[in-house]
Amino acid sequence: MTLLDAPSYDAGRARRTRTLAISGIVLFVVAFFGTILWALEWPWQVWHLPSDHRVNQFMAAVEGGDLNQAYGLWNHDPNWQQHPQQYQPYDFVAFQKDWGPANEDYGQIKSHALFIAHRVGNGVVIGLYINGVKKPLFLRVDNKAKTIGFSPVELSREP
User: Is residue 157 part of a domain?
Assistant: First the structure.
């Protein structure tokens, strides 16, 4: 067989070959990064990003000393000062004792780190370390009301 006797070009076969090659490369890349993310447990945290963001905003307000804003985030009511009687079970005075600079457990709160989040019921329980203390604090963000509260549920990464 000589060069002049070469078979004719098959466009359909070339398209199939190219499609299979690209699909194989894409599948390999997705599997590679998927395996890494699975090992890091990162994909599970993505589902809780709105709750994580809410807790981070709250903690940033506490760390900045703006307890009025923090209490507004806690109750999902930026205008809470116009009707404080609605929040009598956990009023601003009690909130200041728990989150202010005279906090008995942590003192003045200067840093925080989220380490775990998990959906529990109609909310997300988030565990965080405050001021580097290795005893975690668990907060719960209600998905519907967008309020933050102390969680009765404690999470663990251990099986």
Answer: no
CB atoms inside a 10 Å sphere around CB 119: 13
3-state DSSP assignment of residue 126: strand
Q: Is residue 94 part of a domain?
A: yes
Which residue has 């728990």 as its token pair?
A: 98
Mean pLDDT of all residues in 37-52:
69
For the chain, the domain total comes to: 2
The two tokens of residue 120 are: 């529990």
How far is C-alpha 18 from the chain's CA centre? 40
pLDDT for 38 equals: 66
How far is CA 144 from each of CA 44, 97, 121, 136, 140, rounded to the nearest angstrom?
20, 27, 11, 25, 12
Report pLDDT for 149: 95
Residue-number span of the structural domain to which 134 is assigned: 47-150
**Would 34 be classed as within a structural domain?**
yes
Q: Nearest CA to 156 among 132, 110, 120?
A: 120
